Amino acid sequence: MSPSPLIGRGELLDVLIRAVEASATTSAFVVLTGPAGIGASSILREVERTVGSEGEHTVVRRAAAVPWETQVPFGLVMQLVPGVRIDGTNPVEWGHRIADALSTDGVTILLIDDAHDCDPDSLRALASAVRHHRSARLAVVCTRKPLPDGCVESHRVLDRAADLSVAVPSLTVSAVAELAALQGIILSPSSAAHLTRHTGGRPRHAVALLDEVPRETWKGVRPDLPAPAFVEADVRTALALCTDDARRLVSAATVLEDGRPLTTVCDVAGIDDPWPAVDLAEQCALVTVRRSSAATILEVHDPTVRAAVLATMGRVERAQVHRAAAAAEADPADQLAHLVHASPLPDPLVSDRLDALAATRAGIGEWATAARLYLLSSRSTQEPHAREDRLVRAVDALIGAGDMRTASDYIAEIESLRETPTRNAVLGYLAILRGRPNEAEARLTRAWQLVRTRHDPEVAAVICHRQVLHNLARCDGANLVLWADRAVELVGADHATAVEAQSIRGLGLAGTGRVAEALSSYRDLWGHASTGAVGQRVQMGAGWLHFATDHIDLARSELEAAAPTDFLGGSTRISLWAHGWLARIYFVTGEWDAALRLVGAGSDLADRSGAALIVPLLQWTATQIHALRGDWVAAATSAHRGDSGARDYEIMRVPSALGRAAIAEARADYAGVLRALAPLTEQWAQFDVSEPGFWAWPDVYANALIVEGRLEQADEFLIPHEARVRERGHRSAHARLACARGRLHGAMGDLDSARASFEDALASLAPLPLMYDRARVNYAYGQTLRRAGKRREADAVVSAAREGYLALGATTYVRRCDRELKAGGVHAVLKDRAHDALTPQEDAVSSLVATGMTNREVAAELFLSVKTVQFHLTRVYAKMGIRSRAELAAARPTDESSTT
To answer: Coiled-coil segments, which residues (predicted)?
Structure first.
């Protein structure tokens, strides 16, 4: 990372600085795009500071375009390159003159801020200088705001001129928290997330609020944040330019908060002819207009603008607009929320209606809406016990919606309340999603001790559901099914809580080997919940199970449907599980770029929500892809993000171990593979974790044992896993274990049995779209054939493996296949070879030794015995007239393509 005082911009700065430094060989035009306040100007200053300190041969010039000079032809060029002046308006001719005027001794870097306001002629001339003089050692770096800011023509020129276009991302929640810490303000995770959402992750806005808002404000849970002073000033100026209709339209859209149909906004604003008002408000950047499939949607998109508009409205005006909104809204939840905001005093009737509606929405899985309604009801309830109960239910709904950060901020308050079964169940629920099994166990056990199942069956069923989730995370299918069945017994199969429990029950059944019953349970469950928020849970559970049972296409469609959270009541918690398992589907089917995008989106979602439980599953896929591509830094970073320990949930420990094993295997460190997977050989992992299809680890462990020469242990390890796979009839798990068995046969010298096992593995994979597994089997098969001396046969199989790995982008294994093909020597030119020339096998061994690998590591890489490596190395020394590894490394420079 570039050393920089800018928070959260290290990677972006590295990209820009690398692009600028590359101009020493090839001129470049770079465009940096981001909205106002995103910090693009600060990034440009940091580039200037960094590259400007690189020596006297680097010339850095910086200018800022301004809107009143947009129509001055070549105005900016004359600022940046003094002395350049020719007659005419041909930008190509100007480009030649610019190149002639540059320093011939070093690199020239021209930095242009707010290039959207630049005159188009200057941009064309600079682009021509870069395009026609690639050896001129020129870098042009521009910042711009997105359309519609600035000159449209300048935007077109920048789009065409850019060799590299980079979008400045919003700051992450952790970056905003770090920004606050520099101001001396320690934000809770939910406050940091709230500030990030409110400011859109724009540093200027975040810093302004951290400076302007009283520090006590940040101690509350999701406080009402104002607009930064500069935003409020701009909004007041814009509103002063608006007509009365436009101001009423903006006020109505602000109070309605989320985007609403234009007809609803007009009803609230009392406007019959909206278009003049809409056009004016849009020109003033106060509202955003977009088309949906059914209507024109109007909204105040920027939360800081919304806060600024509210600041211009008096309390009476706001109350009047809220009452009008309550009359115009179709959703009862929105109607009641507006009535609460319109009333200065608590209204018991409204509070009770909120509570009843919240319970209804919770019953159909719309947890986000239920949480909002419960919180409003709690705040407007005067009776203490009722207020406490509604607060507890609000926090429970927040967890159900996946907002663990906000829920966590209520922990101290919830713990201060009287002990009830519901209170303990909620605290246990939160502990599960935060990845704290011991705390969850204690909380849920206490809740079950306190509940009276006959008098409070619904509360008891909720505790059962939490136990279902707890045992899912513990990878304990037997207890999962037990608690799910208990929930059904308490409230009946059609009750919402029982349906939620049953949406996970199938995973418990499959975890205990009852796969057919599990698949049948999901078919039956669709009759209870096929759509909406509860349907999302069923789709996720069914997709997870179908992936584990090799129904890949069906699993993909179900998980893709469960991943979005923008439909009614979608839960972030469920979406995260869908992201994790869908990424695995993309991995095994070879869509690695899509998998990484999905992991990135899921990681951002997990960071915003605070759901630590699911992070290792997401990062496992990223770690494995990076390792197979040879990007060791990225692999190590992903593995660190997904790391877990012995005190964490089993569902966290397993993918964490698999990620570490993936790095070790990609590095041919098979002892490291065994160390990483050793916890999975312990008693706790002998049941659900070893069930075929869920976690593909037994073949990886067996393969490492074989390569390490521990053949008897490998045989003993494989036997029970093979028996379980035969009993389940699991196709892909059978193929993986057959591949390991083929390796074992080959290592023991039984080539016929090895061939049979490998062919069996390939046949099992034939009807499945598992590209990675197919390449893996071919690679192991080819290595085994080559070791047995069947070089021509091995060449064909390894070539197939190489094609598979190449299609995946698995460069680590493409290089290994190349070494295998070279070591096989089928295509080597043998005629007229000198007697002291290295054989293909000797060449492969020596090239790896020259990189610094030990004999054991070379043996693992080439699937040879250590003695064979030593034999080849001795012959290499004799032929080359050297006596040591150091002399070998000096005699043949490291071949970069052979390093792992």
So the answer is: none
